[in-house]
Amino acid sequence: MKSVAILHASQLVTLSGPKRPRIGGEMSDLAVIRDGGMLIRAGKIDIIGPSNEIEKNAGDAEVVDGAGKVVLPGFVDAHTHLVFAGNRLEDFERRARGETYEKIAAAGGGIWSTVEKTRASNDADLLAQAKKHVNWFLKCGTTTVEAKSGYGLTLEDELKILRVMRRLNQETPLEVVPTFLGAHAIPREDRPSVYVDLVINEMLPRVASEKLAEFCDIFCERGYFDIEQSRKILSAAKKLGLKLRMHVDQLTNSGGAKLAADLGATTADHLEKTDEQGIAAMKAAGVQPVLLPGSVYALGSTSYPRAREMIDAGLAVVLATDFNPGSSPTVSMPMILSLACTQMKMSPAEAIAASTINAAYSLQRGEKIGSLEPGKLANFSIFDCEDYRELAYWFGIPQTHSVYVKGERVAGA
Ligand code: NIG
Ligand code: FE
Questions:
Q1: Neighbouring-strand partners of residue 45
Q2: What is the pTM for the complete model shown?
Q3: Staple partner for 249: which of 13, 32, 73, 273, CB 3.0–4.6 Å?
Q4: What residues in the chain have per-residue pLDDT under 70?
Q5: Which ligand gives the minimal distance to the CA of 78?
Q6: Which ligand is closest to the CA of 325, given by its number?
Q7: Residue 1's pLDDT is what?
């Protein structure tokens, strides 16, 4: 495997620092090296520092000129629904005409319509569409994603989705961290109590025994799974050794953040309607909030989560795309950075810490990815701009120059 030397980066944004997620003022310190260089050997970062020092050690490494460019760790997208069939153009147009997400779902659109398409899709078609999504992620500079099942809602269809994720890991450069979200919605054919039992007694044991997921998630929301059903399902998942992530307080505040704290969940995601009690509960239990401004934006809402209060309370905030066909059809972390800064008043530095190192820790991969430090995987992106703040500032303009996974170029020039 050849060595690679990145030289003369206008800013090498390392995010080096303590071996834990960043909180409070730490989120503003990206440990930027100007005129920076990085030497990569055997897919890992060997040395990193001022360009002239790296040049001395470069030997016969392939040189990549970073002049006038920013180098950043690959984005880590800690909340996506990567595997699904089709799209939701009908919902999109109905929302443009003023209908709400909830009304469209009640009328037969919403999650259910994607479930029908995903059930009807065979393994090969589902895999082909997922590979298209994977390429989009890589092109935007994302090198690791968490991905949830949840558009199958039968044992076989949920397994089918999780197996597609396993194939993506084998056949594409994107690292996919699988999460079981059988409790995404109650399927039309089942009564709620019957479906909850099916998830607990049949789906979870299979997912765990086939090691198809690292995490278990649930959509805790009015009309989906209530607090008691959520507690039951997630307690069963925990007993089987799965870690927990949860969709909570997205459309209504049902006390989901507090439940995430009670259960010791790794993350509580969405949190648009979470209040100060929820924030305090997450802080006390060490739950990482995963904020998803893309879904607020795409649903045409203005109810963004209270990012500033969460950072000020010392929570290790994460930002993610929530890529899905219904509420957040984007894979673009730069777009999420823009929304975080303009709508949630995060600084560009805080937004980058939230989408790299903090996200990596939320996936229990903080020791391997999320920053550019010796010994970590050489997963990084080079952008056509001189200052990292430009990534959040110029919105809707692709700035990716090239993307590397384990030292190999996987997208871009
Ligand atoms: O995170 N909230 C639930 N799940 C997704 C939406 C899924 C869909 O609409 O297909 C979300 O927003
Ligand atoms: Fe989601």
A1: 40
A2: 0.98
A3: 273
A4: none
A5: 2
A6: 1
A7: 79
Q: Give distance in angstroms: CA of 411 to centre of ligand 2.
A: 26
Residue with CA at minimum distance from ligand 1 atom 8:
326
Residue nearest to atom 3 of ligand 1 (CA): 219
